[in-house]
Amino acid sequence: MPELPEVETVRRGLAPALVGATIERVELRRRDLRFPFPERFAARLQDRRVLDLRRRAKYLLADLDDGHSLIMHLGMSGSFRIDEETPGAFHHKRDKNAAHDHVVLHLDHDRRVVYNDPRRFGYMLLIATQAIDEDKLFRGLGVEPLSGALDAAFLARVFGGRAAPAKALLLDQRLIAGLGNIYVCEALHRAHISPLRPAGSLVLASGRPTAALARLPQSIKGVLTDALKAGGSSLRDHRQIDGSLGYFQHSFRVYDREGAACPTPGCKGTITRVVQSGRSTFYCPSCQK
DNA sequence: AACACCCCCTGTCGGC
DNA sequence: TGCCGACAGGGGGTGT
Asked: pTM of the prediction?
């Protein structure tokens, strides 16, 4: 489930149970996810206390009391849940999916944090907290889209002279870190910019943003903020930590709505699906130029 | 450098 | 009902 709003929703759900807790034992049910777990992974986590749970881009970072941080990425299908230890309890609904419970963090106070990931595109690793910013996973990351760093001047600077479609640059984590396929489609619709449009065409010869590009920062922040308020989007059966469903998918204006009427007031267009760089793009050819 | 394409893995859904 | 291909919220690697 993991673009910025979903990862942040996971963080907020996990933090109350995880921060301040001690990891008493770690159960690894396989030796790898996308990558092999680090050497002595379970042993290094054992008896560590969690000092903080942060998010950077689509990563979760649990700062531990030994100067290291547990880095977690959910890939395409990763999710966490919190189980209270209730011996004898029978969680019928969990059974089918339990085959993909790959990591169990046994915490104090009889609590478990369980990581489930059917496709195993997620991963976990340990990095010295102080060295995170220089780590190769993090040093190249772009700006946080909800921060002040994302504004029209920034977009004009990174879009200028680029021939790639606007959508491709918005998905590039080296420029803006945290957007994914859904929210890029949604933000471009809100800004009335075609995802196919060459990014450079949104920048004037003077280097200043066009009027359309000047709308984009607020469109990005707006869709992310709205999604956060809704607890993220729940495609298929993904759930929040507490088992409830995020509901922003009901507010999608274009994503997965091929053939539907464009929701822009006064627009008579129809939402269309095209493929860019092998991934689906949804947009309205009528009001997105 | 910049861009397009392929792949990793499993599950689900629509069409036949 | 069953089979088969297309596709899925990410991102790393390679080729041009």
From this structure: 0.94
